């Protein structure tokens, strides 16, 4: 049995907390929102996972120390925009040598750090956390399906093989198959940038375009992600695997995907703000666009789909016009990545 502290009580954090508790682990969940803690502890329901019952064994706390002290694993499950502030709040209670697992997907726009990089940046500044182990847990994993115990696969990414395997052992069960990967950077880039491509896929569906265009966007979108990732030092196998193409496929095709759904609404004529409000949950693809644009410029990588999504989301261009422009770009060989 492992002792696990979960920071964040959204759909993904709670779906994993339930799964881990049902696997026999000791789980404590913290939220920065006191009202959310009270609601979850009282109702044993997560509002965006209405069919899921939260096990009685899961403990909820308003004190971050209780979720961080004496834990085998601390799980960061907050939206990308809150990772830095959560790390700062938790830092005084995180011991050196701790295993930290991040399941949020994003890139910080100001620093261009992936989210485990953000946590590491916060913790190493005090000189007391030089031996913390950072793991990115990512893959084709809708919280809604994990909450129903449907078969799922995911990747435990860490440069330290022993740590990756420890996380693998904790999260593996009859319904969750966990693979390991040493390419933490590549895995995190895939998790963040595929959300932007999922927006493009949703926009096309909202416009009434068919599967042909969506398939093209998925494969060409991964080509853009891979071009950037390889220049940044990621491994090609990460982009072709579960955390890359696997996660992109599910995020860019499923009605369970908030990024696809937001894109669909934008394609139907709604603004990005209207789409986010209607989806009712964080749309990480919109948050990832500024960092994606900056990384494209910094590493001199061509990313036309990402730039097209930015134009549409920020109201600079009409979606059909942007699709027309993508269709009429300069000729390329099919063999070119």
TrEMBL record:
Enzyme class: oxidoreductase
Residue positions binding NADPH: 11-12, 105, 143, 258, 282, 284
Gene3D superfamilies named in the record: N-(1-d-carboxylethyl)-l-norvaline Dehydrogenase, domain 2, NAD(P)-binding Rossmann-like Domain
Location(s), subcellular: Cytoplasm
InterPro entries according to UniProt: 6-PGluconate_DH-like_C_sf (IPR008927), 6PGD_dom2 (IPR013328), G3P_DH_NAD-dep (IPR006168), G3P_DH_NAD-dep_C (IPR006109), G3P_DH_NAD-dep_N (IPR011128), NAD(P)-bd_dom_sf (IPR036291)
Catalytic residues of the enzyme: 194 (proton acceptor)
Signal peptide: none
UniProt: NAD(+) binding residues: 8-13, 82, 143, 258
Alphabetized GO MF terms: glycerol-3-phosphate dehydrogenase [NAD(P)+] activity; NAD binding
Domain spans labelled Glycerol-3-phosphate dehydrogenase NAD-dependent C-terminal: 183-323
Chain positions recorded as substrate binding sites: 105, 258-259
Binding site for sn-glycerol 3-phosphate: 105, 139, 141, 194, 247, 257-259
Annotated coiled-coil segments of the chain: none
GO cellular component: cytosol
Keyword set includes Nucleotide-binding: yes
Entries under Pfam families matching the protein: NAD_Gly3P_dh_C, NAD_Gly3P_dh_N
HAMAP family linked: NAD_Glyc3P_dehydrog
Family statement: Belongs to the NAD-dependent glycerol-3-phosphate dehydrogenase family.
UniProt function note: Catalyzes the reduction of the glycolytic intermediate dihydroxyacetone phosphate (DHAP) to sn-glycerol 3-phosphate (G3P), the key precursor for phospholipid synthesis.
Protein name according to UniProt: Glycerol-3-phosphate dehydrogenase [NAD(P)+]
Organism: Lactobacillus porci
């Amino acid at each position: 049995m492992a002792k696990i502290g979960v920071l964040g009580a959204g759909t993904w954090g709670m779906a994993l907390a339930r799964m881990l508790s049902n696997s026999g682990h000791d789980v404590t969940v913290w939220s920065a929102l006191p009202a959310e803690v009270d609601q979850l502890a009282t109702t044993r329901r997560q509002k965006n996972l209405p069919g899921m019952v939260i096990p009685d064994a899961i403990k909820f706390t308003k004190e971050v120390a209780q979720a961080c002290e004496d834990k085998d694993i601390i799980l960061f499950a907050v939206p990308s925009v809150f990772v830095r502030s959560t790390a700062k709040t938790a830092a005084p209670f995180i011991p050196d040598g701790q295993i930290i697992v991040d399941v949020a997907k994003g890139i910080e726009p100001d620093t261009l750090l992936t989210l485990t990089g953000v946590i590491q940046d916060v913790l190493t500044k005090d000189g007391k956390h030089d031996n913390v182990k950072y793991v990115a847990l990512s893959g084709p994993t809708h919280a809604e399906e994990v909450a129903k115990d449907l078969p799922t696969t995911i990747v435990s990414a860490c440069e330290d093989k022993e740590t990756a395997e420890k996380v693998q052992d904790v999260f593996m069960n009859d319904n969750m198959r966990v693979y390991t990967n040493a390419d933490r950077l590549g895995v995190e880039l895939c998790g963040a940038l595929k959300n932007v491509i999922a927006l493009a896929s949703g926009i096309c569906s909202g416009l009434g375009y068919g599967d042909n265009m969506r398939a093209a966007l998925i494969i060409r979108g991964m080509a853009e992600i891979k071009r950037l990732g390889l220049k940044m030092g990621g491994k090609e196998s990460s982009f072709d695997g579960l955390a890359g193409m696997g996660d992109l496929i599910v995020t860019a095709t499923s009605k369970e995907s908030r990024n696809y759904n937001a894109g669909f609404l934008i394609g139907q004529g709604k603004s990005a703000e209207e789409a986010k409000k209607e989806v009712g949950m964080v749309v990480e693809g919109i948050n990832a666009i500024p960092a994606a644009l900056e990384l494209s410029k910094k590493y001199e990588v061509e990313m036309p789909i990402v730039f097209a999504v930015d134009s549409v989301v920020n109201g600079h261009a009409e979606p059909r016009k942007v699709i027309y422009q993508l269709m009429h770009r300069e000729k390329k060989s099919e063999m070119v990545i």
